[in-house]
Input
Amino acid sequence: DMEDFLDLCDAEEDDDDGFAAMYEADALSDDEDEDDKDHEDDKAMAEEERGALRGLAVDLLRLRREGYSLRGSRLREARAAPPGSRERRAATLVTSEMRTLEFFERAARSILARIGDSAGVRKEEEATDGLWEDLEAAERTVLEAQIADLVGGYLAVRHPHILAARD
Output
C-alpha cells in the first residue's frame, strides 16, 4: 500500500510542471500582471473604504444636527427642566443618543486621520452642540480612551501595517 502511494506521488510530480513553470519568462510576466492587478484592486478597495468612512462620519454628523426635533436651545431648556419631568427624561435620552453618534463620528474621523485621509478630518464639519464639552474631564478621558481602543481594533484588523509602523 505504501509503495503504491509513493508511486502515485511520483506520477503526479512527473505530470505537474507548475513548479518548473514558475521559472519560465511567461509565468513571470503573468505574475507581474497579477501583482499590478492586485495593487490596483488594493487601491480601489482603500478608496472605497475611505469613502465609506467619510460617508459614515458625515451621516452621523447630519443625524446629530438634524435628526432630532429636540435640539439646540430647546434641548438646553429641556435639560434644565425639573428632574423627573417628561422634558428632562426626553432630553436625557436625546443627549445620550447624540453623544453616542458623536462617539462613532469621532472614531470614524480618527480612523481616517490614521489611514492618511486628511479630507475626512475637516474640523469645520464638527457640530458645535456642546454635548461633548459638557462632559466632565474624567468622562471625556474615558470616552477618548474608548475611541482609541475602537480605532486600534479597527486598524489591527484592517490595517495592521499602520500599527506595526508605529511600534
Q: What stands out?
A: The longest helix spans residues 25-66.
